[in-house]
């Protein structure tokens, strides 16, 4: 289902349903859950940052079955999280109807704003219903949790687990696991580098306002190659053309955009010295794999989405109009996305240099 269609359906049908369905009464704790369903619509980044909370659930309740209801564009992430037993996609065939017929002890809606996922929680038979109470969707939960824009998103997901006795804590790195089959597949693709260390580059983003631009990535890649390293572009099929442009004429330079699965991209990242990327799902994928990153933030809220720790460099402009993104929505920019376009190649190279001493 197209994202724009889904958003329109949520604004109309979702708002209607959460007001028509009976409100869920507050719930009290009980015995340890034997089954938990987490609902995670959206993109790759949210799915990655939810993974530490899933692992914490499995550690707290080791015999519990943990399922995820996702969508096709982010479902592969949960294949990198060994605590998840089953992944269903609500936008695939009659899957949603089958999920609605199941029973779980706990259902947790990890969506931050839209209402349709809250309706699904209300309809699934369960003892405990948990979700973010950001609007009238709070009526669908026995435990409605506050949501903050200035709180790191991985910690926000932990807030959903408070009623289960789980609090945020140090996250062991890496928290994602690369399948062995993906490692073998990628070893062949990387063999042409002759074992030379490389920096991974991701030029893509879900919206234009988050893209730094192919020309700047090309200049960056050339500088990296001049330093004696290789530049490897990662991404999906939509990034293939810009990837070709970035590495054209560079030796060694490699464009793997669109040539691997998400697990394959994770395998590539796991071998990289570091990743340079804008605010993207691939950025969070690298974080989950324990890979150092240089990230470029424009309209996105760095306090909520930027990687944490001394292995990550965050570059941003502190303009009066940025960040402007709220609940995943970024308005059209009247000033040409200056917040990211004014970041220079020299600044990014300094970030790369600052991590090189601790790179692999």
Structural features, described:
With 360 residues, this protein is α/β, with parallel strands linked by helices. The protein has helices at 3-20, 44-60, 95-100, 116-123, 153-159, 180-190, 214-226, 240-247, 262-271, 281-288, 302-305, 338-341, 345-356; strands at 35-39, 65-70, 86-89, 103-109, 125-132, 143-145, 198-202, 230-233, 253-255, 274-278, 293-297, 312-316. It has two domains: 3-164, Rossmann fold (3-Layer(aba) Sandwich), CATH 3.40.50.2000; 180-356, Glycogen Phosphorylase B (Rossmann fold, 3-Layer(aba) Sandwich), CATH 3.40.50. It has 13 helices and twelve strands.
Short recap of the structure:
The protein is 35% helix and 17% strand. It is of the alpha/beta class and 360 residues long.
Q: Domains counted in the coordinates: how many? A: 2
The count of helical stretches stands at: 13
Spatial strand order of the main sheet: 3-2-1-4-5-6
CATH class membership of the largest domain: Alpha Beta
Main pleated sheet: 6 strands, parallel
Tertiary shape: globular
CATH superfamily descriptor of the largest domain: Glycogen Phosphorylase B
- Spatial extent as radius of gyration: 21 Å
| Uncertain regions spanning at least 5 consecutive residues | none
Helix content: 25-40%
State which percent range the strand residues make up: 15-25%
Would you count the extended β strands for me?
12
pLDDT averaged over residues: 93
Structural class category: alpha/beta
From the 3D structure, determine the CATH topology of the largest domain. Answer: Rossmann fold
Provide the CATH architecture of the largest domain.
3-Layer(aba) Sandwich
Helix-strand string = HEHEEHEHEEHHEHEHEHEHEHEHH
Q: What is the CA-CA span between the terminal residues?
A: 41 Å
Protein name: Lipopolysaccharide heptosyltransferase II
InterPro entries: Glyco_trans_9 (IPR002201), LPS_LOS_Heptosyltrfase (IPR051199)
Organism: Geothermobacter ehrlichii
GO molecular function, one term: ADP-heptose-lipopolysaccharide heptosyltransferase activity
